[in-house]
């Protein structure tokens, strides 16, 4: 397009009549000048005149060309000049920046980026990306109405037509439907069995109950994964039969009802009743385990048992409140600290603890932290009791040894529980030794010299053993499948926990017999699915003999001339010889081979507690133990320890609480499914075109509940 003289200034602050740019001046190298003409005003300044709308913009040597490119992005493509003095609303926006010639030199500061293609923008793809962003990060549908968001998107890509909140909601639900279809296919193709956990959630606004069903499994790459399958609304008046029916119906919809190895129902309504009913309805040729989460059960046991020592802990809380109540009393306490030879802290940490025993948030872990911090000053409190007449109604000098003993017990439990949520891959083999050690300690604490400790431990042991009877089998199986321990952990701990030799031997034999029975079930299924003939079998007759260096061929070989004896005739004697000499040998299963080998040790001859990856080990040795690896893949994936969540953590936020149940389930499940999905080519619906296997292999971390979209704002 040829350069045209400007009819007058159209840019604010620019006055005078423009004249054409001197062609002898420095050459204009930026491609943006294909759409602008540089002209000089009478005052000596320069302007850039747009070829399309004839608007004048500053073109000084220091102004650069960025503002010219921005102008082209919003300039009317028709070239019609807007009325002078009136701002015209731009309805149709088009990016007019031209693509840089691929043969041009390196991009300069004022040039368009090499390879930039203004025609690459796709409205539908961008719209689906917006929906995926909203799903993944839990944003509100109404974000598309926010002025800041609309301004940002418009400046980023003027051509993008921002959808309405209703359209965004529909796009999000389509993403859920597509991801659900892929996940269902992937679960159907998964050769291993899966575990199922159920968790109750509550709406923050309406008080509605929801049932969350989560599937736990180990992939073909031996990675521990979990997926939220459903998040369904349930009536608060539901019976155990209703809950069971809901769970069974969803399992059938996903096609996993025949491949469930365990169910975890600790945070479910009527957990015991539902567990028994599911064991009957889902029972197949394999054993089905009803598992109780060790983290959840231990929390309940400890919290309930501490009620027995509440009088003592309340006196400790009262002592802290006494010190905090006035500056005078705090000064007295500091004097007692000094007299006791302790280091004076101007602000002791125990003063920051909540001393209200009726506070629902004051759980046993916070009680332990408080006791641990205050026990450092037990000598000061004992001295305060001696000479401060106002302190006589609080914890006495005789109380503090018991408080110290109680704190030592809670310290063991606290640090054991503290490790459970931090495990990256919480496979079932990690907990047997820890739980057995707690079992042993509880028995020892029952005979503690301090009554408060013995009383608490006795109740804890009684409740613990009820849980232990339910979980010991699957946890022992997982320990046996850990090559660092095999049967050794079971043998050792059962002998030290159960002092009676007959009882310990009976329990060890029972675990081993159950393990072998389950292994045989896997072996039978594996042989039934195999299309190959058994490698070893016993023949019925002798077809030839081997004597010295001569061969006696049978099956008609003696009727053939020497020249017509084939290669297979010559090798048949070897087959017969192998059959005859191997018929008396005992064929060992891979379980026999696994147990015969020594337990795994590191270079120093010790158990590798920190870096050992049991799933990586089984992946490496699955070919050596083909049947046992199938069993390990199912058992090690059982969620033995799901990190417990308190009531607040299992509450929908206000935004989700206002939605209908179908949308709530769609957003929560889709967010979980897409969180770790690999980015790749998009399908027609805008979702990732990754295969079902890729969907299952997305990293999802641990067994603990991790649903950011659910939590409170």
From TrEMBL:
Q: Which InterPro entries does this chain map to?
A: hAT-like_transposase_RNase-H, HATC_C_dom, RNaseH-like_sf, Znf_BED, ZnF_BED_domain_contain, Znf_C2H2_sf
Superkingdom in the source lineage: Eukaryota
- Keyword Cell membrane annotated: no
PROSITE patterns reported in the protein's UniProt record = ZF_BED
Q: Which GO terms describe its molecular function?
A: DNA binding; protein dimerization activity; zinc ion binding
Query: Subunit notes for this chain?
Result: Homodimer.
Q: What is this protein called?
A: Zinc finger BED domain-containing protein RICESLEEPER 2
Give the species: Rhynchospora pubera
């Amino acid at each position: 397009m040829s350069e045209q003289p400007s009819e007058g200034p159209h840019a604010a602050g620019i006055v005078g009549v423009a004249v054409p740019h001197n062609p002898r001046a420095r050459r204009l190298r930026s491609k943006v000048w294909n759409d602008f003409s540089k002209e000089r005003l009478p005052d000596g300044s320069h302007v850039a005149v747009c070829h399309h709308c004839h608007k004048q913009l500053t073109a000084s040597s220091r102004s650069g060309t960025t503002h010219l490119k921005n102008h082209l992005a919003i300039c009317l493509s028709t070239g019609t000049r807007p009325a002078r003095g009136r701002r015209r609303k731009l309805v149709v926006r088009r990016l007019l920046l031209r693509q840089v010639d691929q043969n041009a030199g390196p991009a300069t500061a004022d040039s368009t980026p090499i390879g930039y293609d203004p025609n690459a923008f796709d409205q539908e793809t961008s719209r689906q990306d917006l929906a995926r962003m909203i799903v993944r990060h839990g944003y509100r549908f109404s974000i598309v109405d926010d002025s800041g968001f609309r301004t940002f998107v418009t400046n980023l890509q003027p051509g993008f037509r921002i959808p309405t909140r209703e359209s965004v909601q529909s796009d999000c639900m389509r993403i859920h439907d597509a991801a659900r279809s892929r996940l269902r296919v992937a679960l159907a193709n998964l050769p291993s069995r899966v575990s199922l956990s159920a968790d109750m959630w509550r709406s923050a606004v309406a008080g509605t109950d929801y049932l969350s069903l989560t599937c736990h499994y180990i992939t073909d790459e031996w990675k521990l994964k979990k997926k939220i399958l459903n998040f369904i609304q349930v009536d608060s008046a539901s019976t155990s039969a209703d809950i069971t029916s809901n769970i069974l119906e969803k399992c059938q919809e996903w096609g996993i009802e025949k491949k469930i190895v365990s169910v975890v129902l600790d945070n479910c309504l009527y957990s015991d009743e539902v567990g028994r009913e599911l064991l009957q309805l889902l029972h197949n040729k394999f054993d089905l385990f009803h598992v109780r989460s060790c983290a959840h059960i231990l929390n309940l046991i400890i919290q309930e048992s501490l009620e027995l020592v509440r009088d003592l802990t309340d006196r400790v809380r009262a002592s802290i409140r006494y010190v905090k109540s006035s500056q005078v009393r705090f000064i007295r306490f500091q004097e007692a600290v000094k007299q006791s030879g302790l280091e004076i802290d101007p602000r002791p940490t125990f003063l920051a603890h909540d001393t209200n025993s009726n506070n629902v948030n004051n759980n046993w872990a916070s009680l332990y932290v408080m006791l641990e911090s205050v026990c450092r000053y037990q000598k000061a409190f004992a001295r305060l009791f001696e000479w401060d007449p106002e302190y006589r109604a609080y914890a006495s000098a005789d109380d503090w040894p018991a408080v110290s003993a109680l704190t030592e017990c809670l310290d063991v439990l606290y640090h054991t529980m503290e490790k459970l949520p931090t495990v990256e891959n919480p496979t079932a083999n990690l907990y047997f030794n820890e739980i057995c050690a707690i079992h042993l300690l509880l028995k020892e604490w029952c005979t503690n010299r301090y009554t408060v400790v013995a009383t608490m431990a006795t109740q804890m042991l009684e409740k613990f053993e009820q849980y232990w009877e339910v979980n010991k089998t699957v946890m022992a199986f997982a320990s046996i499948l850990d090559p660092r321990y095999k049967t050794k952990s079971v043998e050792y701990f059962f002998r030290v926990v159960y002092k009676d030799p007959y009882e310990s031997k009976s329990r060890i034999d029972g675990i081993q017999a159950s393990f072998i029975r389950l292994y045989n079930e896997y072996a039978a299924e594996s042989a039934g699915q195999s299309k190959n003939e058994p490698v070893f079998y016993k023949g019925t007759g002798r077809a030839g003999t081997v004597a010295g260096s001569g061969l006696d061929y049978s099956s008609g070989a003696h009727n053939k001339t020497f020249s017509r004896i084939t290669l297979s005739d010559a090798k048949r004697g070897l087959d017969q010889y192998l059959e005859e000499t191997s018929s008396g040998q005992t064929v060992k299963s891979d379980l026999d081979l696994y147990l015969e080998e020594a337990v795994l040790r590191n270079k120093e001859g010790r158990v590798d507690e920190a870096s050992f990856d049991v799933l990586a080990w089984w992946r490496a040795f699955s070919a050596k133990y083909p049947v046992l690896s199938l069993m390990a893949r199912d058992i090690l994936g059982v969620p033995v320890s799901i990190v417990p969540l308190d009531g607040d953590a299992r509450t929908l936020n206000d935004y989700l609480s206002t939605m209908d149940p179908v949308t709530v389930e769609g957003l929560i499940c889709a967010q979980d499914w897409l969180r770790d999905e690999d980015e790749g080519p998009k399908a027609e619906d805008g979702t990732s075109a990754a295969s079902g296997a890729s969907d299952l292999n997305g990293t999802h971390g641990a067994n603990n509940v991790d649903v950011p979209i659910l939590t409170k704002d």
